[in-house]
Amino acid sequence: MNFAFSVLAKILKLGYQPDTIMLTMLMKGLCLSDNVNKALQFHDIVIAHGYRLNVVSYGTLINGLCKIKQTRAAIKLFRKIEWKVIKPNVVMYNVIIDSLCKYKLVNEALDLHSEMVVRGISPDIFTYNSLMYGFCFVGRLKEATDLLSDMVMKNIDPDVYTFNTLVDAFFKDGRVKEAKSLLAVMIKAAVKPDVVTYNSLMDGYCLVNEVSKGKHVFSTMPQMGVTPDVHSYSIIIKGLCELKMVDEAMNLLKEMHRKSMIPNTVTYNSLIDGLCKSGRISNAWKLLDEMHDRGQPADVITYTSLFDALCKNKQLDEATALLKKIEDQGIQPDVYTYSILIQGLCNNGRLESAKEVFRHFFIKGYHPNVWLCNAMIKGLCKEHLFDEALALKTKMDDSGCTPDAITFHILISALFENNEKKKSHRLLREMIARGL
């Protein structure tokens, strides 16, 4: 960009005037090099010097703003354009509609769509695809399918992206029958399914525990001229692991290696979780080493599976050491990770260690959730430290982490079993008053 602006300086020095195409190109270059704010500043300078910009210039700036998640600023710029001089086009509207839909602002996107129509600008396939994605994103599937009908009425041919968006949304919502009907419509419309379509189909079957059907889709993909990708393998591997069919899942990993496919973090996480839940912790550690060797970064999900397995296997010192190790690596454990460790320590009579981890959690500046507090309350009750348990319940209310029915159940049961009937009855009345 420095060289590009040097050329502009040379042009001006020679007494030539830059044209709109040249100025637009410079703004586009700034946007592509992640300097959208500088592009806007350059726009202001250009306008101040009396140069004219066109619809492509403003489309470039609006697109740049949307790409850096500044949709509000994009709309503000859009509203500042002199429409008497520059006529908006479908591309400009599409960019903003797409960005709004990605942030679930579907109603605002619909308003822009209506504005387009009023201005005499016809929505195209990209407009409909963006709106359809937005509707699916917020779970408004009826309106998404209505858009498909609207497209057909206006002679806009749906493409593979249109159908993929709808099929994926219906499967994720557990509506297998409707998803399969959409696939039939897709094939009837002569739109060829691609790897994304098949992945959605497999994912949908796995979500409703029909992994065998997912496997069938996976095995027939090559016959349909579609090559499974890493995501395809990850979906089936996850489905198999959830059914504890870990050996079959491991065979698929070996198949990926044979095909020189690089498994991603999701693939490894599914396998590590499956191995851990099957009690094969040593195999899970080996897979973690393989992840590192292949340059795939382990994340908090990877380690949470290992924490869970170590705690269930009563390897609590190893679990505590692992917490320190991942924090030293810059991986931030989540509340779920801490909850598993605290519950494991409490269940095995190591309350002081659990309290230390609980304190460490707050020192790190994390905010507890009800599950974490419940684990600690249960541990305190187990050691008959009822006053501390009740004090923690009060702290939950004060910190905005509202106790739930499980919190009250733990406390009431423990107090009642230890003849603290007045306290247990008081808590029971409070629980009823809260509607739990």
From TrEMBL:
This is Pentacotripeptide-repeat region of PRORP domain-containing protein. PPR repeats lie at residues 54-88, 89-123, 124-158, 159-193, 194-228, 229-263, 264-298, 299-333, 334-368, 369-403, 404-436. Belongs to the PPR family. P subfamily. SUPFAM superfamilies: TPR-like (SSF48452). The keyword Repeat applies. It comes from Lupinus angustifolius. Keywords: Repeat. Pfam families: PPR_1, PPR_2.
